[in-house]
Design brief:
By secondary structure, the protein is an alpha/beta fold. It folds into 3 domains: about 190 residues, Methylglyoxal synthase-like domain (Rossmann fold, 3-Layer(aba) Sandwich); about 120 residues, AICAR transformylase, duplication domain (Cytidine Deaminase, domain 2, 3-Layer(aba) Sandwich); about 120 residues, 3-Layer(aba) Sandwich (Cytidine Deaminase, domain 2). About 35% of the residues lie in helices and about 20% in strands. The chain has 18 helices and 21 strands. Strands 8-13-12-11-9-10 form a 6-stranded mixed sheet, sandwiched between helices. Strands 16-21-20-19-17-18 form a 6-stranded mixed sheet, with helices on both faces. Strands 3-2-1-4-5 form a 5-stranded parallel sheet, sandwiched between helices. The longest helix is centred in the middle third of the chain and has 30 residues. The radius of gyration is 30 Å and the shape is elongated.
Length: about 500
């Protein structure tokens, strides 16, 4: 039988050179549509698929290769005499190499103004069918889905080193390729239907980079991007510094999620996924100064995120301490000159508005995944219950909302003390709430006097109120809902503290 290669690709990178190499190795080329034209334009001899099937393409090209003459040639097991005898009886030839990559569904739906009809027309049917047939019969068929494999395939065919493991690797790449493709289509359809928690969850991510190690040096790690841009660090551009690490990426994400809570000029400092400095200022330099002063010790080696351009003044202040990463929507030319003098400082340009796009949160557990909708609610003014004799002033209400936005992003159990639009004490990740309260007030020190306090969950006892009173706290915000709310309210009244309950809990484990 003739040696045949079937080529049908959307990405024509390196196609003519690869096809020419196959001809040099004695393969007859079979192709369709635009691929066939590209090969002919390159001066290569090529049969149309209809010359193999005896059946012209139809339905505007929707049916070209879905034919027994194609799939029998792919699926016939070469060392099965009955298979080969049957091919001969049918007058069919084998197909020994398949070169297929699929309709550009992702590129199509990312185009501005893409209609649903365009998206549907770019769902490939024949391509995945051929790939799956060839991949099932990988011992007999070489499959190329990735142009970067072309050179190695030619070299191995010439050397006769296209062994089992190499063919199995190509088969694996097919199933990974088609699974990601189908997953992307499923995600697109799901988004059209507004389904957030499907019965069957398919995910499609593309490896963006290998990482030197994971959370600790003995752990392997890689960074994957969502197949469809959905904001976040994946959409950012690194302007300077060495590669981001696993912990860098995790911490920068935490910083950007908190930063998205604020509209005014804001700066967030994160250390080990917890806020150690948060402030809104009259400009970005003012905000950075306030954020830095929250905890000048913990910010060392931290991640700083800004929602305004970093100017020269802010950059100069930032160089006075060691920072791992600075993210911002832009950096002035002078700021870049100042900051890039530090060779290891990573600078990342980020679209902070993209962080506000809703997305599910996914957490890996052994043997499964936990999926939940994003915590994208703080509280509305209509949620507020004034539960104490003393009511907070309008200024304190604004401070309380700021503090609650910060505590929402601290690990539970969490307490935040704030003054104006500056966090002055953060207690996070504690196994009981009183420890978190003591930690936050201790860090605030004298700044706690007259400040406000936010708790990510209700007070099960009145002990946190007592600690707040000892620190000089003037007003408290908490969700409420404890069986002992009355005890906390009574304690606030006793100490002259205003407290509101907002009915929204913000655990972050």
């Amino acid at each position: 039988m003739k040696k045949r290669a079937l080529l049908s690709v959307s990405d024509k990178t390196g196609l003519a050179e690869f096809a020419g190499g196959l001809i040099g190795l004695g393969y007859e080329l079979v192709s369709t549509g635009g691929t066939q034209k590209a090969l002919k334009d390159a001066g290569l001899a090529v049969l149309g698929a209809e010359e193999v099937t005896g059946f012209a393409e139809c339905l505007d090209g929707r049916v070209k290769t879905l034919h027994p003459a194609i799939h029998a040639g792919l699926l016939a097991v070469r060392d099965n005499p009955e298979h080969m005898k049957h091919l001969c009886e049918l007058g069919l030839d084998t197909i020994d190499i398949v070169v297929v990559n699929l309709y550009p569904f992702r590129q199509t739906i990312l185009k501005p103004g893409c209609t649903h009809e365009e998206a549907i027309e770019n769902i490939d049917i024949g391509g995945p069918a051929m790939l799956r047939s060839a991949a099932k019969n990988y011992r007999s068929v070489i499959i190329a889905t990735d142009p970067s494999d072309y050179d190695e395939i030619l070299l191995r065919l010439k050397a006769g080193s296209d062994d089992h493991d190499f063919r199995l690797m190509l088969s694996y790449k097919v199933y990974a390729h088609t699974a990601a493709y189908d997953s992307l289509i499923a995600d697109y359809m799901r988004s059209k239907l507004g389904i957030t928690l499907p019965d069957s969850l398919t995910l499609s991510y593309t490896k963006a980079q290998g990482l030197r190690y994971g959370e600790n040096p003995h752990q392997t790690a890689a960074y994957y991007h969502d197949a469809l841009p959905n904001g976040g660090l994946a959409s950012g551009t690194q302007l300077h510094g060495k590669e981001l690490s696993y912990n860098n990426i995790a911490d920068a994400n935490a910083a950007l999620l908190l930063l998205a809570e604020f509209d005014g000029p804001a700066v967030v400092a994160i250390k080990h996924a917890n806020p150690c400095g948060v402030a809104v200022g009259k400009d970005i330099a003012d905000a950075y100064g306030k954020a830095y002063r929250c905890d000048p010790v913990s910010i060392f080696g931290g991640i700083v995120a800004c929602n305004r351009e970093v100017d020269a003044s802010t950059a100069s202040a930032m160089t006075k301490t060691f920072l791992e990463i600075i993210t911002a929507p832009s950096f002035s030319d002078t700021a870049l000159k100042i900051l890039t003098a530090k060779p290891n400082l990573r600078l990342v340009k980020i679209d902070i508005d993209a962080m506000r796009k809703p997305a599910n949160e996914i957490k890996m557990v052994k043997g499964g995944l936990l999926v939940q909708g994003e915590d994208n609610i703080l509280y509305d003014d209509s949620d507020i219950r004034f539960v104490t004799k003393k009511r907070p002033t309008p200024a304190q209400l604004a401070e309380l909302k700021f503090a609650f936005a910060v505590v929402k992003h601290a690990k539970s159990n969490a307490i935040v003390v704030a003054k104006g639009t500056q966090a002055v004490g953060v207690g996070s990740g504690q196994t009981n709430r009183i420890w978190a309260a003591k930690q936050a007030i201790e860090r605030a020190g004298v700044r706690a006097k007259g400040a406000v306090l936010a708790s990510d969950a209700f007070f099960p006892f009145d002990d946190c109120v007592t600690v707040a009173a000892e620190g000089g706290i003037a007003a408290i915000v908490q969700p409420g809902g404890s069986a002992k709310d009355a005890d906390s309210i009574a304690a606030c009244d006793k100490h002259g503290i205003a407290m509101i309950m907002v009915g929204k809990r913000h655990f972050r484990h």
